């Protein structure tokens, strides 16, 4: 199994915008959820009292190859091209991505 984790830090009060974008359950599966090798997705919000908020989007794949196929798919690329040149929302403080192999 292979796991992709996106980490986003947003200003106070904006975590729900990320949850809505990445975690909202829809009537039909998203393009991501229809990809061969996709297992599931979880959106986690770090418990905080005040200040910047942290959101993790964890996507589990059957294999690294399945993840790579999604990354280079026309649907994924088109989604990024649609946002090319647009400034990131000002409520996003930082974002990044890591990938992991599940070993146990």
Automatic annotation (TrEMBL):
It comes from the Bacteria. InterPro entries: ABM_dom, Dimeric_a/b-barrel, Heme-degrading_MO. One of its GO terms (molecular function) is oxidoreductase activity. Residues 2-101 form the ABM domain. Gene3D superfamilies: 3.30.70.100. It holds the Pfam family ABM. Transmembrane segments: none annotated. Its EC number is 1.14.99.48. Keywords: Oxidoreductase. This is Heme oxygenase (Staphylobilin-producing). It comes from Lysinibacillus parviboronicapiens.
């Amino acid at each position: 199994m292979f796991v992709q984790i996106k980490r986003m830090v947003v200003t106070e009060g904006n975590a729900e915008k990320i949850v809505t974008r990445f975690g909202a359950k829809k009537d039909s599966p998203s393009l991501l959820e229809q990809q061969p090798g996709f297992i599931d997705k979880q959106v986690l919000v770090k418990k905080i009292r005040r200040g910047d908020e942290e959101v993790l989007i964890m996507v589990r794949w059957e294999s690294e190859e399945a993840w790579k196929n999604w990354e280079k798919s026309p649907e994924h690329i088109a989604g990024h091209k649609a946002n090319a040149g647009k400034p990131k929302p000002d409520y996003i403080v930082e974002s990044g991505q890591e990938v992991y192999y599940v070993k146990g």
